[in-house]
Amino acid sequence: MKKIKVILAALLLSAAAPVLADEPFVVPSVHGWKTTKGNYEFTGSPNVTTQIVKNKKLGQEGYILEVTPKGVVIKGQTKRALLWGQRTLQQMTYGKTSIPCGTTTDVPEYAQRGFMMDCGRKYIPMDYMRYLVKCMSYYKMNTLQVHLNDNGFKKYFHDNWDETYAAFRLESEVFPGLSAKDGYYSKKEFRDFIRFADSLGVEIIPEIDAPAHALSFVHYRPEYGNPEFGVDHLDLSNPGVVPFLDSLYNEYLGGPDPVFCCPRVHIGTDEYNNKKEETREMFRAFTQHYIQLVKSYKKQPVLWGALTWAKGKTAIDSEGVLMDVWNNGFAQPDSMKSLGYQLVSIPDCHVYIVPAAGYYYDYLNHEFLYNKWTPANIGGKQFEEHDPQIEGGMFAVWNDVCGNGISVYDIHDRTMPALRVMAQKCWSSTNSKLPYAEWNKLASVLPENAGEQPTQTVYDSWGVLPCKSAKCNRLAPSSNVSLTATDGGNTFKMRDLGYPYTVSFDVEMANEKPGTPLFESKFAQFYLVDPVTNCVGFIRDGYHYSFDYKLVPGKRYSIRITGDNKSTSLYVNGKLIKKLDPEQRLAWDKKPYNFMRTLAFPMQRTGNYRSQVSNLVVTK
Question: Is residue 444 part of a domain?
Answer without folding.
Answer: no
